[in-house]
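On clarity, I found the account of how folds are encoded harder to follow than it need be. Since the whole study asks how a given chain folds, the encoding of that fold should be made plain. For illustration, here is how one protein appears when written out as sequence plus structure tokens:

:::
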Amino acid sequence: MANDVFNAAALDKKVDEELKRKKNLKKDQRKKKNENIPFYLFVISDPELVEDSEIEKYLNENKVGMGIGVIYVYNKLEELPKSCNLIIETTSEENVFFDKSNIGEKQKI
């Protein structure tokens, strides 16, 4: 867990090494090795902590088989990376989710 720039930089280095390894390991190689690949879930609430970091590229790329997922908890829709598709918006009045490409069709949760 990182709650400041210093901790984020230290975590970034460690996680970057692991994600590079996972990206370079092909799916069939993982099956042959019978390797249990962990799933990493990142919950990011401060855009500045991942901005220009090494792992940012993996978070935005998020290829199937990488074993990573990201939940961005931001106050403004504009702060979300372009790679975000499914948005959950919570207010005191309602909670909805929608696809960013079809913002007009919000569904209540």
Summary: The longest strand covers residues 40-44.
